Amino acid sequence: MTAASSENAGPEHPAPPPPPALDRLRIGSAPDSWGVWFPDDDRQVPWQRFLDEVAEAGYSWIELGPYGYLPTDPARLGDEVSRRGLSVSAGTVFTSLHRGPAVWDATWEHVSRVAGLTRAMGAEHLVVIPSFWRDDKTAEIIEDRELTAEQWRHLATGMERLGREVRDRYGLGIAVHPHADTHIDGEENVARFLDATDPEAVGLCLDTGHYAYCGGDSVKLIETYGERIGYLHLKQVDPDILADVVADGVPFGPAVARGVMCEPPRGVPALEPVLTAAQGLGVDLFAIVEQDMYPCEPDRPYPIAERTRRFLRGCGA
């Protein structure tokens, strides 16, 4: 063999193996990643543009977002999503069940509308977000940051009732979403909530960004309460901006406007170990990218969504 042929025999260092396939995770995105927080707002992109761009960015699954942003007629919405090659993974509802039985009727009126549309779209999940203790725009304190023992009982029994009613009437499972500036936020309150509720009725939506925002460790949560996690939201937090937000006592809405939620891999938590831990649960999970960006310029979301999808493919998802 000549020197030249020896040089051409092959690379001295073989290419690294591809990441393991995360084949139990179904990747999607949500209106939130396009800066959509409200059913109607002049600073949000039209719903047609969201649907066009989320499909073009490489996602197959979407959430409904705030009820009324996407068409609420099932036939029309079904046509709009299917002709773009999309499917719906979940709807989202907002609750204040810690206030007791007096709020049940109003809660169910809201939930039933969203659950009906979610079921009609063939989805099986309802993400449940607890109410805020301070206004996410004005920072006005709406109620005490800490719940009383009685309010914790109302919250637990109310969520259990909601989970059973939604399952029995609509065939959906609820996934309660720990969220910044709510009473279900960081490690202590999430553990308290999970320990107080029936696993058969109440699941958890782990939002990696909100949990990090509130000081939680997503991998630890998956390892500790993995059987309760029925749904994932993927996002990251910019640790430098978060440090300023915490130091200044900034409410969640203005914190988002500062850019506290960032695209991967620029923030925390690192998503690779989170995805690996979720894959290790051995169950099929939706993993929905949800980067809070309200308000934002209309041309900003699509490039971020495309880069994020590429990043997740590089992780094996």
Describe what you observe in this structure.
- This is TIM barrel protein.
- Residues 1-25 are annotated as: Disordered.
- The protein has 317 residues and is an alpha/beta fold.
- Helices cover 40% and strands 15% of the residues.
- It has 12 helices and 10 strands.
- It has helices at residues 3-7, 47-56, 74-82, 104-120, 149-170, 187-196, 208-213, 218-225, 239-248, 252-257, 271-279, 301-314; strands at residues 25-29, 61-63, 87-95, 125-130, 173-176, 203-207, 229-234, 236-237, 261-262, 285-289.
- Strands 1-2-3-4-5-6-7-10 form an 8-stranded parallel barrel, surrounded by 6 helices. A two-stranded antiparallel ribbon has the order 8-9.
- Strand 2 (61-63), helix 3 and strand 3 (87-95) form a beta-alpha-beta unit.
- Helix 4 runs parallel beside helix 5 (149-170) and helix 8 (218-225) runs parallel beside helix 11.
- The longest helix is centred in the middle third of the chain and has 22 residues, at 149-170.
- It is globular, with a radius of gyration of 21 Å.
- The model is unreliable at 1-7 (pLDDT under 50).
Largest sheet: 8 strands, parallel, barrel
CATH classification, class level: Alpha Beta
How many beta-strand segments?
10
**Nearest-integer average pLDDT:** 94
Our measurement of the CA-to-CA distance between the termini, rounded to an integer number of angstroms, reads 43 Å
**Spatial order of the strands in the main sheet?**
1-2-3-4-5-6-7-10
Radius of gyration: 21 Å
User: Which outline best applies?
Assistant: globular
Strand pairing plus helix content: what structural class? alpha/beta
Portion of residues in beta strands equals: 5-15%
Which spans of ≥5 residues are poorly predicted at pLDDT below 50?
1-7
Number of helical regions? 12
User: How many separate domains?
Assistant: 1
CATH superfamily: Divalent-metal-dependent TIM barrel enzymes
What is the CATH architecture assignment? Alpha-Beta Barrel
